[in-house]
Amino acid sequence: MSIKDNLIAINQTIPKDVTLVAVSKTKPNEAILEAYEAGHRVFGENKIQEMTQKWETLPKDIEWHMIGHVQRNKVKYMAEFVSLIHGVDSLRLLTEINKQAEKHNRVIPCLLQMHIAKEETKFGLDTSELHQLISSETFAALENIKVVGLMGMATFTENKSQVRKEFASLKTIFDGLKQKLPNISVLSMGMSGDYSIAIEEGGNMVRIGSSIFGARNYS
Ligand SMILES: *Cc1c(COP(=O)(O)O)cnc(C)c1O
């Protein structure tokens, strides 16, 4: 199947109000252009340098999402153009994004990343850190970022009920957070292997790479 066929097939399985982020990390411009020519405009990358190179060389109506872990000293490279930063997991990072956004006269939409998986290695906040962050005066004073929702990654496991439980827990946190931040609307959860479960549990943004572009070769 071509990239275009994969996109058509996946779009048929997701509701209209769910945003598909095509995760193009490690893939060349030609692959992205194939998806672009099929009408797709929202792409996700996990390395700031790679995303910036692609932004410089590809059509300017592409929306670039940063889905990976963000190093504070690299925020400046994407502040001009990034559409949504999914992996924000500290007030220090949010403060740096705010600072760099201000230089470009922008308000950058961000998602706070929650730690919902069993694995120690996955990044993200726990609920007490989340509430501490959003209750702080520093957070209230940031005018060049806008928290528009939450992101999370489930445990990498064949155990579907475990994955479902983790997504459900993120949805519960999301609904609770809405009481304090009524304008949040985005719940980013689900990848190639588990996006159907994520949607069933209330996710409205899925990040899909290998099912669109094929397996990645890391060399
Ligand atoms: C790579 C990646 C994805 C996409 O993974 P696939 O299994 O290829 O769909 C989604 N989210 C994040 C945060 C990623 O790093």
UniProtKB/TrEMBL annotation:
InterPro entries: Ala_racemase_N, PLP-binding_barrel, PyrdxlP_homeostasis. It comes from Flagellimonas hymeniacidonis. GO terms for molecular function: pyridoxal phosphate binding. It holds the Pfam family Ala_racemase_N. The modification N6-(pyridoxal phosphate)lysine is found at residue 25. This is Pyridoxal phosphate homeostasis protein. It comes from the Bacteria. The keyword Membrane does not apply. Keywords: Pyridoxal phosphate. Belongs to the pyridoxal phosphate-binding protein YggS/PROSC family. Pyridoxal 5'-phosphate (PLP)-binding protein, which is involved in PLP homeostasis. Its cofactor is pyridoxal 5'-phosphate. The keyword Transmembrane does not apply. Residues 3-216 form the Alanine racemase N-terminal domain.
